[in-house]
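Suppose you are handed a protein chain with no further information: no name, no annotation, nothing but its sequence. What can you learn? This example shows the usual starting point.
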Amino acid sequence: MHFLTGKALPRRAFLKGAGATVALPLLDAMFPAGRLRAGSAADRPTRLICIEEVHGVAGCNEWAAERHLFAPAATGRDYVLPDENVLKALEPWREFMTIVSNTDVRMAEAFEAQEVGGDHFRSSAVFLTQAHPRQTQGSDLYCGTSLDQLHAQRFGQETVLPSLQLCIERTDKGGGCDYNYSCAYTDSISWSSPTTPLPMIRSPRTAFDMLFGAGGTDEERARRRRTHRSILDWVSEEVAGLRRELGAVDRRRVDRYLESVREIERRIERVEVRNTSGEPRELPGAPPGVPDSFSEHMRLMFDLQVLALETDTTRVVAFKTGRDASNRSFPESGSNRGFHPASHHGGRERNILEFNKICRYRTGQLAYFLKRLEETADGDASLLDRSMIVWGSPMGDANLHNHRRCPLVVMGGANGQLDGGQHLRAETGTPMANVFTMLLHKLGHDDLERFGDATGEFSLAGGA
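A reasonable first move is to predict its three-dimensional structure. Written in structure tokens, the prediction is:
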């Protein structure tokens, strides 16, 4: 079989074995002769990755803003990121990054007296919906449809997973949280409708098995692990047959991809072995597949996202990197303070800088993701060129629990829809939803007039 004769390997090609399904990355063999590497608009879908940072960042405090710990002093393309800026680690990808400062998330504020104090318990639900949650601990949840789900419902239905929801901290408390809010508002950033929050996956093992169908039942998965067989062992005959039919470039691409799959599998296995050894854990009670190290966990989840996007298994990811009011500490940041206590810095300069250490460490994890996307080919471009990454927080100054001047950064090329390399400062009072309205238009939702509490569309030319 020769794929260059006018026939093409289907874009939805899979390697299948007993209880295992491995999707393939985009290959030259998937294009008919004469269309190699270029493809059509359908072959170049824009991926959307939405990443929430809870508690805002230290740079949203008034004193820290004067030191430009988040928003640079200059707008436009000639801005400078001081060494202490929370985005400093991302500077190598400056041309793929648009910093948007001074936008508000007022839907996360208290509307009624009984809502005062509940900021941590409604913020996450607001981030991607820009809608105000109904205060309830019952089943009558109500918020809004999130940005990621709007995109998944229109452009993700032909993929295996219309969207993928991932998280780092536990989201399984259930029932009611504080201030008469359901924990569902705290546990998810992704809402398929105003009444339906989507569950988020914390365990890399669970995400891996979902992506690769690694054993159709719990018994099959357990048997594979007992024999220490890789998922790739289950599709080895299919791999051999495929390699015989591919050109040299495609063979190398498939080999690199499959080695990435195997390496992630090995890393997950090492985490599970370490966490079931009986040694004390930094995260007691966490599932065996969840690393104690925040950096290790983030990198595994980022690598899984890259595989899912590379194979077009999904085009939409929502990633929640923390849980509001979490007391987790991050020793790798250089600070031993708990996250939530550190965010309540009392406006004292030394404490703000201590919180900033944690913020820089957490945000710095994105550098790994951007590098992986940049190194991963998708036709004649990279996944970074093909993707829109929205990173931000529904909270500004966590010490005050306010939702004004919240941090927001848009990264990636979005198939030529984003220029990057600039800092835009919104006019005071601009809703973050104005930016999201613009981003949805860039993603192809031309018929959407506005989103959430938007008052218009934010212009990438500068200003609201």
